Amino acid sequence: MLDLTYETPKPKVIAGATGDWELVIGLEVHAQVASNAKLFSGASTAFGAEPNSNVAFVDAAMPGMLPVINEGCVALAVKTGLGLKAQINLKSAFDRKNYFYPDLPQGYQISQLYHPIVGEGEVLVDMAPGIARRVRIERIHLEQDAGKSIHDMDPNLSFVDLNRTGVALMEIVSRPDIRGPEEAAAYVGKLRQIMRYLGTCNGDMQNGNLRADVNVSVCRPGDYEKYEASQDFSHLGTRCEIKNMNSMRFIQAAIEYEARRQIAILEDGGSVTQETRLYDPDKGETRSMRSKEEAHDYRYFPCPDLLPLEIEQGWVDDIAASLPELPDAKKARFVSEYGMTEYDAGVLTADVANAAYFEEVASGRDGKLAANWVINELFGRLKKEDHDITESPVSAAQLGQIIELIGSDTISGKIAKDVFEIAYTTGRDPAEIVETEGMKQVTDTGAIEAAVDQVIADNPAQVEKAKANPKLAGWFVGQVMKATGGKANPKAVNELVGKKLGL
Ligand code: ADP
Ligand code: MG
């Protein structure tokens, strides 16, 4: 497979009163599996349904109900693991994590503590062209989501909506390999990108489809390298966990705040208490939620309602064979196949739909020109109206026509922008627009020559100046373009102007 070479970015350093500090971050990302039914019931996972309308008896924990595993969810977790180059465990098992919460009718969450379905993997987190960090994945396990308590609808009553109860989540646990707030956000972004390519999680953070628990600690320069060499966590600082973050911006702000809070404590001679904290976006600070709970606090035990999960290598192989081309490979291919920069390839492959659109435009045409038009003209125009590629009024085939019209010198790049604007606002075909509106470039040298002669005859003073200073020839080119309504072939005009002025 194609691969791009890259350098590892430097960790973020915060200067304290007693010297420098470095950040160490590990993320637990909860990604909702893109399945239509829940992990252990046939109830729908549709977002925004009437409260408590998507609840099977087993989701509501009715006595005697038994969970039945959704094979589709298992397949999507395996697919995610394969996309993260991870070990797939043919044997895994479900455990009960016991705790009480009004939105958890069972009184426990079915999760995978001891034997997760996916083991070690990795993600390449791009920071800038040629700069990326390899973040190791520790594990991915399948678990149930909880419901939602609603406390702000009535002054005296609380409500509960169990629609989300039992929806399948993948918890993706990273090693503490992330070294700064921007990297943490980029890591979540890369996971989301990969899962969207795979179709295993739609990654909509606003709807809670992707949430992250962010673990943060600080250490002195050199300590992390000792940890890396020994994998001994005692070289690292005590971490705090910031729960349930669902915005890239807040993830960064929370890490920044939390690191500075810990540094202030340490520089004051105190020690950081391991705990779970919540980020308050209004105040821009984290505050303690509860002291850190340990696995034994949850009385984990193997779920007696479910057999251990055994899958076959052949089934995993079939899923592996169905994997689409993933972002890193696509980016590398765009660079080598179309000769574009890594930056442009990154922009075009950010979303799988963008990449597909681009490839349709570029197919059989000038790839570099196509990349330019998709990124600068189309994306720029779509962004103005807050639209994404699926809402583009100009189809890939239509934009392809524009690339061809430029390539064949039928229209100039400048006229092409006008054609694009008309196509964008009317949905008309560019080829038809050029024909009907008479926008074809004038390549007939006779006609251009006449226009050049006219401009020269009309401006004797300018002619004298241009002869003394050839840079002023550009003025004549501009006048000729104006006289021909922008339709003269600029190359031909340039040549003729030079010739006629004797430059
Ligand atoms: P728990 O499930 O109790 O939260 P885990 O061992 O699963 O504990 O680790 C949770 C996350 O914390 C992982 O992503 C891990 O990389 C991260 N982590 C562990 N130690 C540190 C540390 N010293 N600083 C930052 N993150 C850490
Ligand atoms: Mg945790």
Folded structure, characterized:
Strand 12 (240-245), helix 4 and strand 13 (275-280) form a beta-alpha-beta unit. The protein contains 16 helices and 16 strands. It is elongated, with a radius of gyration of 30 Å. It has helices spanning 71-83, 181-198, 223-230, 248-267, 313-321, 327-338, 342-349, 352-362, 367-384, 396-407, 413-426, 430-436, 445-458, 460-468, 473-483, 490-501; strands at residues 13-16, 19-32, 91-92, 95-98, 108-111, 121-128, 131-144, 148-150, 159-161, 168-174, 210-219, 240-245, 275-280, 285-291, 301-302, 309-310. The protein has three domains: 13-294, no CATH class; 323-436, no CATH class; 445-501, Orthogonal Bundle (Arc Repressor Mutant, subunit A), CATH 1.10.10. The two termini are 53 Å apart. The model has no long low-confidence stretch (mean pLDDT 94). Strands 1, 2, 6, 7, 10, 11, 12, 13 and 14 form a nine-stranded mixed β-sheet that branches. It has a three-stranded antiparallel β-sheet with strand order 5-4-15, with no helix packed on it. The chain is an alpha+beta fold.
